[in-house]
Each structure stands twice: as C-alpha cells, then as structure tokens.
Amino acid sequence: MAELTNIEIEKQREYIQKMRLVNEVRKTAPKAFVETYGCAQNENDSERICGMLFDMGYEFCDDVKDADLVIYNTCAVRENAELRVFGNLGALKHLKAKKSSLIIGVCGCMVQQGHIAEQIKKKYKHVDMVFGTHALVRLPQLLWEAMENGRAFDIHSSDGEIFEGITTKREKLPLAKIPIMYGCNNFCTYCIVPYVRGRERSRTMESVLKEVREVAELGYKEVMLLGQNVNSYGKDLDCGTSFAKLLTEVCKVDGIERVRFMTSHPKDISDELIEVMAENDKICKQLHLPVQCGSDRILKKMNRSYTREKYLDIVKKVREKMPDIVLTTDIIVGFPGETNEDFEETMSILREVEYDMIFSFIYSKRKGTPAAEMEDCLSPEEKHKNFERMVEFQNVISKKKNDAYLGKCEKVLVEGPSKNNPEFLSGRTDGGKIVNFQGKDTLVGEIVTVKITEVKTWSLIGEIID
Ligand code: SF4
Fold first, then answer.
1. Taking a C-beta distance cutoff of 8 angstroms, is the pair 135, 156 a contact?
2. 22-26, 308-312, 406-410, 427-431: least confident range
3. What does the pLDDT average to over 163-179?
4. Which residue in 236, 297, 330, 364 has a CA-CA distance of 20 to 30 Å to 411?
5. What's the pLDDT score for residue 5?
6. Per-residue pLDDT for 463 more than 90?
C-alpha cells in the first residue's frame, strides 16, 4: 500500500508542476476561494487543499466574486449544512454565466454519498469538479482535467490509503491541527461518517511525530491531534502502540508546549490514557467526551456501546485524577424513538456531570444510516421545545462553571485579535476556555498570565499581569 501511495503522490506532483507552469504565464496569479463546512478534520483537509493550490500557484481570496476557482469542502453530518452548500452552488450559476473561466469544485463528505454526487452531476451542470474524501490527494489531476475536458468527477471509495507528504497551508500560529487517523469503525446508527470516511486507518507514529516536529520548527506551540475516535489510534497498526503512547511521544517534541485532541469515544477511553493525561503537564486538561444521550434505551438504539453508568464511571475516574478538567460533550435531541422520559434522563446527566459546555443538535436524518429507518415518537415541536429547554439549562451551568474562574490567574496562549472586538486579544486557557484581554499584537503566539476580571457564559475577560 505504501508503494501505491507514493506512486499516487508522485503522479499528483507532476500535475502540480503542470498547473504551476500554466499559472505562471498568467499576468496575475489566479485566485482560489475555499469554504469549509463541518468538523476539525474537514478544516485540516482544507489546509491540505490550500497547500496543493498554493503549490500550483494560486493565491487566496475571501470574496467568491474575486475567485477563479471556488471549492466547497462539505460536511454530511447534518442536513442543514448540505442545504447551505446546495444554496451556494445555485447562487454560483450567475457568477459562472458572467465568468465562464470560473472553475467550481465540491469535495468532502457530502459528495462521497453517491446520490448527492449524482444530483450535482445532473442538476448543477455548472459545477466542474466533484471529488470525495478519498480523492482529496487527486485534486491537481482533477483540476487539470476539469480545465481540459470540462468536468471531472472522482468519488471512488477505496479507503485503505493514507497519503503523506502533501503540502499543508496551515492556519496562523500558534495552533496546528494534525490528523493521526482517518475513518471510523463504530457505526453509531445516526452517523454517516463511517460510510463517507471509511474504516479506521492510523498514521504511523513516525509520520505523526515528523509532522509535529515540522510544526514545532515553524513556531507552533500547540498541536491538536485529530481523529474521529483518537482513543482507538494504533489498533490497526498491530505494533502494540496506543493513543496514550503517541501522546507521550508528542509531548517530548521540543517547542510544543500544549497538546490537545479530538474526539474521544467513551467506550475506548483507557486507564492508561487518563494516567498519561494526568501526569503530563503539556497535555491540556480538556476532554471532549460525547455522551449523546442520558437514556440507556436510546444509547443502545444509537449503538454507542456504553451505558449511562459506565459513562458516569469514566467521568468520575477522570475527575479523580484531574479535578480541574474542562469537560465538554455532544448531545442529540430527538433521536428516533426518544420519549420525553428519555429526554429527562439526558437533562439529569447534564445536571449530574455539569459540563463546561455542550454541543447540542436536534437529530438530523441521514439517508443510508440505520436510524433513518427508525420510527419517531416526538413531534418536531416537542423536539424543539426540549432542545430549547436544554440549551437554557446548560447556559446556567456553563456560566456557573465560568464563575469559578473569577479572580484566578490563568496561563493563556494568545491566538490573535478577538473576533468580536479587534481591540482585544483572544487566547485559550489550558482547559480551552476563551479569554479576551487587552494587549499588544506582539503577544500573539506567546503564553501569558491573565487575571480573570469578568465572566460570561462562553468566555472570560481579564487583564494581563505579566
Ligand atoms: S464514533 Fe460514532 S458518531 Fe463518531 S464518527 Fe464514529 S460512527 Fe460517527
């Protein structure tokens, strides 16, 4: 497999070179507009897409009207995101009518579903390129073919390949996202990910560490290790490694001061991992542990492979070892068959755990998943009512958790200007809490001590004290 992978990369390098030569003779460099939907994995895929485009001689723009190339990197997890992509594609028809040289591409999880790719092929004839998650590395060739022949489609689903050595155009310092594995084996009944991302494939520890060393040399102080279920990292490598072992090695890389990871399936969290997290100062004391629901009956229907009791045991173990851990979770409201009694069990788990934050959604039916065939109990109105009640309830808990920071001094890694107020800088605590404070731009990328002077539901405000 490794040899095949290298052959593919070499082939794509030739297309990069060809594209570059074409772009170099233009008066001005062509501009690419890349929009990303969905999760951190998708963001990382977009960084690799932008890396390849950069190598081909593209510059980047923020306004689709200025673009010579538009790429939507899509998400299939919820219907809303798909509808937004279709809306945006529809709107591009007019732009393409005015500028026939415009190339429009759609990639990512959404188009890895055959019926969506077909829909785009038939109804969105102004779209030039469609490529699924497994074909990302073939972007240079597809772009070349789209320019030569008009349209290029690639949604094949060989999922055994991991491509190393693709240029990555990263977000600005100080945080670098690094995938450690791709795909998922869990088949939660509501989730489309295993169908569009394939089975679990871990990168070798050497490849991950090489990338961590590279970003450390570039000045990144924090890395976020990414996978659909990082806790099962290495199981497919058959060499006795584990996620805990990988974390330990990543922490040894000079220059890396903070290590985070996403996402952890509760069924696979090991005592070894909890120990390593507790003992290693570089590993951020933040854990995103998706519970999805508080009712055993629904957890079983979701195929989550843990019970409420087992989940709460993990939370207890984690808090015994790391009392200050920042805990966050995902919740699905209105899963097929959920009753108001089941929903009350979810409310009670929120009450019991007191998460710092939750990411909650009303269940979205995904064609091709087992849950799409299950019967509903609650009406859309009831689901919305429950959802709103839960959000309100959690807001009070989140604010209460943040209140505990008032007056404390926190080490904050400065990320850049605050999104809401450019006069403030914004950064994160070790636990991942957003802190806004006044300070000079030169502090971006530094770890500073900030005294928390004001507390909001989703963020903290403070004053720098060193
Ligand atoms: S663990 Fe479940 S929810 Fe997460 S990606 Fe895999 S199938 Fe989807």
1. yes
2. 22-26
3. 89
4. 330
5. 64
6. yes
Cis peptide before 174 (omega within 30 of 0): yes
User: In the predicted model, is pLDDT for residue 149 greater than 90?
Assistant: no
pLDDT confidence band for 383 (50 / 70 / 90): very high
- Would the CB of 299 count as within 6 Å of ligand 1? no
pLDDT at 2: 44
Determine the pLDDT at residue 9. 86
Distance of alpha carbon 144 from alpha carbon 127, whole angstroms: 15
| Predicted local confidence at residue 156, as pLDDT | 74
Here the contacts of 123-129 (C-beta below 8 Å, separation 24 or greater) are: 124/89, 124/90, 124/93, 126/89, 126/92, 126/93, 126/96, 126/97, 127/89, 127/151, 128/103, 128/104, 128/152, 129/71, 129/103, 129/104, 129/105, 129/153
Is the minimum distance from the CB of 188 to ligand 1 under 6 angstroms?
A: yes
**Fold match between domain 175-403 and domain 409-464:** no
The residues, any chain, with a CB within 8 Å of residue 131's CB and separated by 6 or more, are 105, 107, 111, 138, 139, 142, 152, 153, 154, 155
pLDDT at residue 160, rounded to an integer? 63
Share of the chain above pLDDT 90, in %: 87
Note the CATH architecture for domain 175-403. Answer: Alpha-Beta Horseshoe (3.80)
pLDDT of 1 reads 41
Q: Is 407 exposed, middle or buried (0-12, 13-18, 19+ CB in 10 A)?
A: exposed
CA distance 381 to 386: 9
Q: How far apart, in Å, are the Cα atoms of 172 and each of 168, 176, 229, 275?
A: 12, 8, 26, 32
Residue pointed to by tokens 């919740």: 331
Q: Say if residue 4's pLDDT is above 60.
A: no
In 3D, which of 158, 156, 147, 33 has the Cα closest to residue 100?
Answer: 147
CATH 3.40.470.10 fits 409-464, yes or no: no
Residue ranges covered by each domain of the chain: 2-154, 175-403, 409-464
Helix (H, G, I), strand (E, B) or coil at 154: strand
Average pLDDT over residues 132-144: 93
Radius of gyration from C-alpha coordinates of the chain: 23
- Topology (CATH) of 2-154: Rossmann fold (3.40.50)
Q: What's the CA gap between 433 and 448, in Å, rounded?
A: 14
CA of 226 from ligand 1 middle (Å) equals: 13
Is 103 close to ligand 1, i.e. is its CB under 6 Å away? Answer: no
Question: Which atom of ligand 1 is nearest the CA belonging to 229?
Answer: 1
d(CA 58, CA 69): 9
- Nearest CA-CA partner of 369 in 112, 189, 113: 189
Q: 229 in ligand 1 pocket by Cβ < 6 Å?
A: yes
Model pTM score? 0.92
CB 130 within 8 A of CB 109: no
Query: Hey, what are 439's tokens?
Result: 């300070």
